[in-house]
Design goal:
This protein has about 475 residues and is α/β, with parallel strands linked by helices. It is about 20% helix and about 20% strand. InterPro entries: Metallo-depent_PP-like (IPR029052).
Length: about 475
């Protein structure tokens, strides 16, 4: 798998006729399918991570990447919603197991009120003038608390609906179908994944199947979707598999699997996929009858196989995360593709869930791509599996310099569909200068030493830009502690 990180300026689609039909070839064909040219294109958008006030630069990058790539499908690989945004303070929860009282606190209510215990209830069951005890008054208080909770959830749903509408707007305008999985910040707004899934399905082009029909071993027809001839295998919200057909629409060439990779572990650090999700991964190769590619939010510990331990004094070295924090690392250039870069330690779960062994055991999978680490953009091989990290495409949270925020394009060839080429479509090359000065920027830690023989997938004459900025201003936001 080759990759290239510099694309020439690409002008938007021209001609009025171009907008009269979907930009996605698969949307015209009614299913995810290789074109008669033998190609299939996919665009990954990682860590959009925006609140209700979406940065215009985020929208500009999404739109420009769609125009440049003309993808059959867009994959949102988690953390679309910045659940920690202050707009969600009424329903915010730091962890899934956090008490529902977190949101009530944010709304300014007391714990006593949430429990149906008024201030008077803290005293011994004293009677009021009308003869009622505090115990008698618990039920109305409880009903009031539930009414407030429902109002707050409805308010959050409306805010999330606004964010989703803005970030998917460029796709809807261009007739490009999309799928979504979830990360460690989406749920923090106070909505569960099934609630968010329902909001995404309101948008034309969303292919996320309803989890209420989930029978992992049964094929589910996406009738009524943007691709009426498409089928899927469904496990849970954000966890499902989509077959991609050959040029004639008959045989399955490969599968695309979206996996909810978890959020946080009770023991600390990041979580892992559920046992149900891992069982589903084990079953997919037999269900589809061919190999698949996985998209998820969280990287797995084996991403460290692509890094090289080095002394802390080594140029561009970064410290590992938690279980790996005793050492510093740089990219192992013998294992990674030209143009790869490392901007921060790989923030993977402390515990190995066994996902890597599952993916490689039967050779039922050929690649896994994740987001999560906003400043990492690399691709490499670990055994028979291609692993890739995609940087943030959003401008509402921390990340690399604005010009390096990117979407990732994949191009599959019917002659060797399990060895796609990939390229980052960067803001600096597609759009130019950001329109906003508010962007949380950190230094690029690893600068590639060579550009290699990468290919520009946009099919336009390009130039290989060198001299990446080694040092950038270190700007931290006041809410940074809640973003990780």
């Amino acid at each position: 798998m080759s990759q290239h990180y510099h694309a020439d300026q690409v002008s938007p689609q021209g001609g009025e006729g171009e907008h009269d039909r979907p930009l996605s070839v698969s949307a015209r064909l009614g299913r995810l399918q290789f074109h008669y040219s033998g190609k299939f294109r996919l665009l990954q958008l990682a860590d959009v991570q925006e609140g209700p006030k979406v940065s215009p630069d985020t929208i500009r990058l999404i739109a420009a990447a769609c125009d440049a790539a003309k993808p059959d499908l867009v994959v949102f690989s988690g953390n679309q919603v910045a659940g920690y945004d202050t707009a969600y303070e009424r329903t915010f929860r730091k962890r899934r197991w956090s008490t529902p009282l977190d949101g009530i606190y944010s709304a300014g209510l007391s714990m006593g009120g949430a429990l149906g215990l008024g201030g008077a209830s803290l005293k011994r069951s004293s009677k009021t003038q009308d003869g009622q005890t505090a115990v008698d008054r618990r039920e109305p208080d409880r009903r009031d608390a539930e009414r407030v909770r429902r109002q707050n959830i409805k308010h959050t749903e409306d805010l999330v609906r606004r964010t989703v509408g803005l970030i998917t707007g460029p796709l809807v305008e261009r007739g490009i179908p999309f799928v979504v999985t979830y990360g460690n910040h989406d749920f923090q707004c106070g909505l569960d994944t099934d609630q968010m899934d329902a909001i995404y399905r309101e948008v034309p082009g969303c292919l996320n199947p309803e989890a209420t029909v989930a029978h992992p071993d049964r094929v589910h027809a996406l009738i009524g979707s943007a691709l009426p001839s498409q089928t899927a295998f469904v496990c849970a919200p954000g966890t499902f598999a989509l077959p991609v057909a050959d040029c004639d629409g008959h045989g399955v060439v490969m599968g695309l699997v979206l996996l909810d990779s978890g959020d946080y572990a009770r023991t600390g650090g990041y979580g892992s996929p559920s046992a149900q999700a891992l069982d589903f991964l084990a079953a997919v190769p037999d269900l589809l009858g061919n190999r698949s590619m996985v998209f998820q939010h969280m990287p797995i510990p084996q991403f460290y196989d692509l890094l090289k331990p080095v002394p802390a004094t080594t140029a561009y070295a970064v410290q590992g995360y938690r279980s790996f924090d005793s050492r510093c690392y740089i990219l192992d250039e013998s294992r990674t593709c030209p143009g790869s870069y490392l901007g921060e330690g790989v923030s993977c779960p402390d515990e190995d869930s066994g996902e890597y062994d599952l993916l490689t055991r039967s050779r039922g999978y050929f690649a896994l791509f994740a987001g999560h680490d906003h400043r990492n953009g690399f691709v490499g091989r670990s055994g028979d599996l291609t692993l890739g990290a995609t940087p943030t495409c959003g401008f509402g949270s921390y990340g690399p310099v604005p010009s390096k925020r990117a979407a990732r394009l994949f191009e599959f060839d019917i002659r060797h569909p399990h060895h796609p080429r990939t390229q980052l479509l960067e803001f600096g090359q597609l759009v130019g200068r950001p329109g906003s000065h508010k962007v949380y920027t950190f230094a690029m830690s690893h600068v590639p030493t060579s550009t290699g023989d990468a290919v520009n997938l946009l099919r336009r004459p390009g130039f290989l830009a060198g001299g990446l900025t080694a040092l950038a201003g270190l700007i931290a936001s006041w809410g940074s502690t809640r973003r990780r």
